[in-house]
Structure formats: structure tokens, C-alpha cells
Amino acid sequence: MGRPPCCDKVGIKKGPWTPEEDIILVSYIQEHGPGNWRSVPINTGLMRCSKSCRLRWTNYLRPGIRRGNFTPHEEGIIVHLQSLLGNRWAAIASYHPQRTDNDIKNYWNTHLKKKLKKHQAIGAIFAPPPPSEPSSIIPTTASAGHVHLHHDMPLSKDYGSLHPAACTNTAEATHQLIARRSPFAATDGDSSSSSYASSMDNISRLLCGFMKSSPPQNDAAADIKPSATEINPLLSFNQYHMTGATTLSAFNDMLPSPPPPQQPALMGHSGYDEPRQQHQQGPLSPIEKWLFEEAEEQVVDLMDLSDGCCSVPMMF
DNA sequence: AAAAGCAGCAACCGCCTATCT
DNA sequence: GAGATAGGCGGTTGCTGCTTT
Hints:
Blueprint (H helix, E strand, L loop, with lengths): L18 H14 L6 H6 L5 H12 L10 H14 L3 H5 L7 H26 L43 H17 L9 H4 L3 H10 L6 H6 L3 H4 L1 H9 L9 H4 L31 H22 L9
Helix pairs in contact: 1-7, 4-14, 7-9
The protein binds a DNA duplex through helix 3 and helix 6.
Main location: nucleus
Pfam families: Myb_DNA-binding
InterPro entries: Homeodomain-like_sf (IPR009057), Myb_dom (IPR017930), Myb_TF_plants (IPR015495), SANT/Myb (IPR001005)
């Protein structure tokens, strides 16, 4: 018997989030930081369950999320990690700081599975796989044992750090955000999108604008002076790791290493620094080295497929 | 042009784990 | 040590928009 659902209360709203709800949630997290989700609906008046709030934040509202259009490079990494880790989407997502586990899971289910099926079907015709591992795209020396990767590192669920000092009043922040909503939506660059979720592609942009225009409201807040990295560590991380990582040789760079202890880069104030931090990795284990080497080969494979430059035409 | 089918994705559900008392 | 609970994760559902017939 599991616990009763957390959302069985009467009056809990379900379904798509509205812009107003998003703004309320973002404002609250702006002020208090992510975490303590149970208190979020209580303190904000949102008629949502805590899980729903957390999910909305982690999957859509937190800064640094990139949506849509997975690159062949990303695909290769996902495929490779999936073959190693199985459907541990959170673990896989930890290698894609810009992507959410939900996004990766959806992408896998809707795109990559099909691609691999075709890949394997063609492979079965032209180069039958060894009988021992017919469903895997890689000969997995590691899959037999427990592969300990960066799954437990804090990166994946850092949620971006929002500085609490940026705003000290939720209601005020909400009003400011609502007041600014239209301009941001207009400059979103995707105004043709029909749905809210995609037109507000990433509300963090809205949030970013809000933060820039919201001066600290007291001296204590001014003292903290968060750096750009602290405000949005994921963005800066991604700029470092992703923008230049277009070659295969950069693959290792794309697999983020945990920050050194003295560098709180990815840890905000938000309380997400406890459990996962305990599992930070040391130097690469042999299995990880193996993974990296294998990954490069597999990425080449998949990129070939995606580019349509392999000898066998692929119709995705 | 309308209907049917399909694909993509946001969100929910239920279980598991870690933490707190 | 046991029970309670919040947070986290993966599977699944259902809605929406697009494509095909």
C-alpha cells in the first residue's frame, strides 16, 4: 500500500497551468527559493498540490531550460546513456543540464525509440547484432554490473538558483511580473506559437527580466550581490559546456563534473545542496572512461544516421 | 472541406526513498 | 527502530495540433 495521493483534497486544481499561476509560483520561488514544496500552495494561495508546483518549476519555469530540437549530439548521448542506465531519466538528464528528465523521457518515447528501431531493423539486415545483446546498440561490458555515473550529483535538480533577496514581497513581485508580462511575451520570439506553454517558451526569460529590473529592496539584500552565476548557474554552466561543445572531442566536456567543494556554483541558497552532494564524484572511474570512449563512437554512429550521411538511407 | 488518425508533450498518478520525529 | 511524511522518479494518460485520407 502506498501513501494516499497528495492531491486528493477537494478544491485542488488540475490541468494546464495558467500564466497567472506561473507568475505566482515564480514570484514565490524568487523570494523563498525552490524547496519546501508543501508550503508553496499554502503560502501562495495556489490551488495546486505541492507536487504539481514542483513539477511545474522543474520542468518549465526554472531558468536555463532549453526546449525542443534535440541536436544529434544530444540524441547520441541520450541513446548511449539510456542503453547503459535504462530508463533512469533523471540520471540521464543530469548530463543535460538544459534538459529536464520529463523532456528527455518524452523525446525518447516519441522520437528516439522509433529511430533506434529503424536503426536496429536496418542493422539486422545489414549487420546482424550478436545474439547476446540483440536489443542494445552497444556491446555493453558495463551493463552487467551497476554503473555508477553522475546520477547522484546535484546538478540535475539544482533548479537554478533564484536569489531570495531580489524580491522581498511576493504580492508586489507578482504585480510587477503581471505588469511586465505582455512585453516579454511580445519579445518572446515565438509569438506565433499557439499554446501558452510554448509561447512562454521559458518563463525564466520573463523571470530574468524581472530580476534585472527589481533592485534589492533592503540593505541586507544589497549586501549579498549575487553573481551572474549565482543568479542563473545553469545558464552560465551551459554557456561554458554547451555552446562550444559541438565536436565529438568535446563530448567529455559535456558530461559535467561536479563542482569543486569551494565552488558553490551550482548550489544556490535553496536547500538543494544536501543529499545529492554527498555523492559527488572523484576522478573518473575506469568504467566512466570506458563510457566516454564508447560514447564518442556511438555519437558518431547516431550523428551519421541523423545527418543522413550513412551508407544506408534513414527515413525518420 | 471535413473526418480520422497520428504525434507531441504537459501533467498526473502511484510507488520508492530519504529524512524527520 | 518504527512510523509518518515530503520529495523524487518513472510510467502513463489525455489533450491539442498537425497530417493524411
